[in-house]
Automatic annotation (TrEMBL):
Required cofactor(s): [2Fe-2S] cluster
Keyword Iron: yes
Taxonomic lineage from the root: Bacteria, Pseudomonadati, Pseudomonadota, Betaproteobacteria, Burkholderiales
Family: Belongs to the adrenodoxin/putidaredoxin family.
GO biological process, one term: P450-containing electron transport chain
Record keywords, A-Z: 2Fe-2S, Iron, Iron-sulfur, Metal-binding
SUPFAM superfamilies (UniProt xref): 2Fe-2S ferredoxin-like (SSF54292)
One GO term describing the cellular component: cytosol
Gene: camB
Record's protein name: Putidaredoxin
InterPro entries: 2Fe-2S_ferredoxin-like_sf (IPR036010), 2Fe-2S_ferredoxin-type (IPR001041), Adrenodoxin-like (IPR001055), Beta-grasp_dom_sf (IPR012675)
Limits of the 2Fe-2S ferredoxin-type domain: 2-105
């Protein structure tokens, strides 16, 4: 099964199994990952699933849709590789993807 590596603000890394066709947010919620609240349940309207994708992986992702782009404009700690983890769907090509959970996510 593919996996994703989430780096927490304190530097800890957690490797989560992510079934194909699951969003990264779904796997994070299943495993109770701190900082991925996902208040809207994956509707791309809350921003509480924000992650910063490792630059080496960012270019492999499908581009964000308009709703995601708009929300990313206002999330705390936005960076050039920011994405909503509910909008990133696991595929075999993304096995091993690395992400960082912004510290602001722990305050939500
Ligand atoms: S879960 Fe709400 S934007 Fe991703």
């Amino acid at each position: 099964m593919p996996s994703a590596v989430f780096e927490l603000p304190d530097g800890a890394e957690l490797v989560l199994d992510v079934p194909d066709d699951w969003s990264l947010m779904e796997a994070a919620r299943r495993d109770g990952l701190e900082g991925i609240v996902a208040e809207c349940g994956g509707g791309a309207i809350c921003g509480t699933c924000h992650v910063q994708v490792d630059a080496a992986w960012f270019g492999r992702l499908d581009p964000p849709g308009m709703a995601e782009q708009a929300l990313l404009e206002v999330v705390p700690e936005r960076c050039p590789t920011s994405r909503l983890s509910c909008q990133v769907i696991m595929t075999p090509e993304l096995d091993g993807i690395r992400l960082r959970v912004p510290s602001a996510q722990l305050e939500m």
